[in-house]
Amino acid sequence: MEYKNSLSFAQKLDKKDPLRKYRKKFHLPKRKNGKPYIYLCGNSLGLQPKKTKSGIEQELKDWKNYGVEGHFHAKNPWMPYHEFLTTAMAKVVGAKPTEVVVMNTLTVNLHLMMVSFYRPTAKRYKILIEKDAFPSDKYAAESQLRFHGHDPKKGLIELAALPGEVCLREEEIKKAIAKHGDELALIMLGNTNYYTGQFFDMKKISQWGHEQGCIVGFDCAHGAGNVELDLHESGCDFAVWCSYKYLNSGPGSLGGVFVHERHIKDKKLPRFEGWWGHNKETRFRMRDNFEPIPTAEAWQLSNPPILSMAAIWSSLKLYEKAGMERLTEKSKKLTGYLEYLVNELGKEVVEVITPSDPKQRGCQLSIQVKKADKKLYDRLTKKGVIADWREPDVIRVAPVPLYNSYEDVYLFAKKLRSVIKKK
User: Fold this and answer.
1) Calpha distance 181→191 (Å, rounded)
2) Bridge pairing between strands 365-369 and 350-352
3) What is the pLDDT of residues 289-323, one digit of tens each?
4) Which domains does the chain have, with CATH numbers?
5) What is the reported pTM?
6) What is the pLDDT of residues 113-131, one digit of tens each?
7) Which of 36, 118, 145, 331 is the Cys-Cys partner for 401 at CB 3.0 to 4.6 Å?
């Protein structure tokens, strides 16, 4: 597409956008003057769907009217409630419904997956991770190493970009896996890097890892709802993600887990067990030995928090209607337009450090502002933009295709230009 730097061009694209109706289904934060903010922070916290309130109120109403009987007689019975989310979530992440379950929060799920899939030996105990991984992932990996009696300084192998570069090169990932292959117990990468926005080819990495006898898992916190993950086809062993970013489930809400079907019925695979992972038919006999459900549900520990799940379900219904294929198609155009407008500002003042290849990114662009500090970002916020600042000089901007418009992108670039000029 040939882009133009004008408001009329952006508005023209919005009129042709087949997904434009979804913007009206979300609450847009408003400034003191009543005008909506330009909200480009879905990579940190997604907006609230307007249906979320009624979804939660329905469960509150049923709790009020039925008490414990709501487990069976609520409009949406609570006993099987998590199952209502499974098919839609599986479509979002490209998995079979039997491979997916919504439960817990992101880092809790990561630890549960490492209980099952990080099985170190005296020789093969190391974990491969990005040097610039999200801190929680690194903390989890380091603590697992210590728990198993290993020194994180020796056991954690960190992938770093080449000198003078920001993103990881694919060939360097492959080299690192080959070099350390017989020492690696686990490859655990963020499939979409939180800082750079770089999206990794999970199928290739899984193949390289498996060739060396490694287990391969991914943190998809910045990928779920943002890019087409195709987790099943990727061949990775497991994946985890949160739902409060692109999946709009609310602050600190539940996460999700993917376990590839080849592992689900492996009775030798260790796991931490809880009663909600036990055979549904005999769960309430209360005396039986643990019998795992033959799906990813076997990794559940406790009965699910219904109020939080109601919020996720409200958003997943929108994803089902919009479809990841259409959202991805719009995302590439919308992000491409943002990239074009930012580049128009001149590389002497700004540089997009996210890969320019649409296949290597989602909707997030990380914009490095030369010779700037957070004061510039604060001025941008005062002009009505909600984005995200990362030290020392990066603004993360995510035009989410479900609710952002081309006009949003155009106005953001215009405001960014104005604060840079003042600087």
Assistant:
1) 20
2) antiparallel
3) 999 999 999 999 999 999 999 999 999 999 999 99
4) 7-49+323-422 (3.90.1150.10), 80-320 (3.40.640.10)
5) 0.96
6) 999 999 999 999 999 999 9
7) 331
